[in-house]
Amino acid sequence: MTFLLPLAAEGGIIENLQKSAQETAEVFGVNAWALFSQIISFSIVAFLLHKLAYKPILNVLEERRKKIAEGLANAEKIKVQLAESEARVQEILTKANVDAQRLIDEARASAQVVADRRTQQAIAEAEQIIAKAREATGIEREKIMAELKREVGRLVIDTTSRVTGKVLTQADQKRINEEASREVAA
């Protein structure tokens, strides 16, 4: 490019460019000192805005972005923990159901054993009651039979004494009682 400047200077190209720039500046009303001062003012304002406004705003935005990222990470952790908790709850419920079913089965088995014992006790008690009733019936029967024998003997003696018209002796009464007893027992 340095070799183009001497060529441009020889042909008057640079002079034409300067002249053309001055004409354009005059047409649009451009003042070089005003333009230069505006450029410096704009640069100062841009620098101050960059230092005092843009950087703090960018920092705040960066902090927000980090907090949002942390929040999303925490949400993912919470989802994982929730899934683990639900799995643990399901395991506990399954175990509790198994234990409850086992306890119910054991209770049923125990109830059946108790019912069987009670039934056996009731049968044994019924058999004892029946045996006692038979024994009592046998004793009562023997008493009734003894009373019947005495009554039959007395009736036979009374009847015999009336029919024969004589008073029977102790030996006769004993013999007639024994014969009557044998016939009643048969």
From TrEMBL:
Provide one Gene Ontology cellular component.
proton-transporting ATP synthase complex
Q: Where does the sequence pass through the membrane?
A: 30-49
Family annotation (CDD domains): ATP-synt_Fo_b
Q: Which UniProt keywords apply?
A: ATP synthesis, Cell membrane, CF(0), Coiled coil, Hydrogen ion transport, Ion transport, Membrane, Transmembrane, Transmembrane helix, Transport
Asked if the keyword Cell wall biogenesis/degradation belongs to this entry, the reply reads no
Q: Which Gene3D superfamilies match?
A: 6.10.250.1580
SUPFAM superfamilies (alphabetical): F1F0 ATP synthase subunit B, membrane domain (SSF81573)
Out of the domains of life, which is the source? Answer: Bacteria
This entry's Gene Ontology molecular function terms read:
proton-transporting ATP synthase activity, rotational mechanism; proton-transporting ATPase activity, rotational mechanism
Topology with regard to the membrane? Single-pass membrane protein
Subcellular location(s): the record lists: Cell membrane; Endomembrane system
| Regions annotated as coiled coil | 58-95
Q: How does it assemble?
A: F-type ATPases have 2 components, F(1) - the catalytic core - and F(0) - the membrane proton channel. F(1) has five subunits: alpha(3), beta(3), gamma(1), delta(1), epsilon(1). F(0) has three main subunits: a(1), b(2) and c(10-14). The alpha and beta chains form an alternating ring which encloses part of the gamma chain. F(1) is attached to F(0) by a central stalk formed by the gamma and epsilon chains, while a peripheral stalk is formed by the delta and b chains. F-type ATPases have 2 components, F(1) - the catalytic core - and F(0) - the membrane proton channel. F(1) has five subunits: alpha(3), beta(3), gamma(1), delta(1), epsilon(1). F(0) has four main subunits: a(1), b(2) and c(10-14). The alpha and beta chains form an alternating ring which encloses part of the gamma chain. F(1) is attached to F(0) by a central stalk formed by the gamma and epsilon chains, while a peripheral stalk is formed by the delta and b chains.
Q: What does this protein do?
A: Component of the F(0) channel, it forms part of the peripheral stalk, linking F(1) to F(0). The b'-subunit is a diverged and duplicated form of b found in plants and photosynthetic bacteria. F(1)F(0) ATP synthase produces ATP from ADP in the presence of a proton or sodium gradient. F-type ATPases consist of two structural domains, F(1) containing the extramembraneous catalytic core and F(0) containing the membrane proton channel, linked together by a central stalk and a peripheral stalk. During catalysis, ATP synthesis in the catalytic domain of F(1) is coupled via a rotary mechanism of the central stalk subunits to proton translocation.
As for family, the record states: Belongs to the ATPase B chain family.
Name listed for the protein in its UniProt record: ATP synthase subunit b
What is the scientific name of the source organism?
Chthoniobacter flavus Ellin428
> What would be the name of the gene that encodes this protein?
atpF
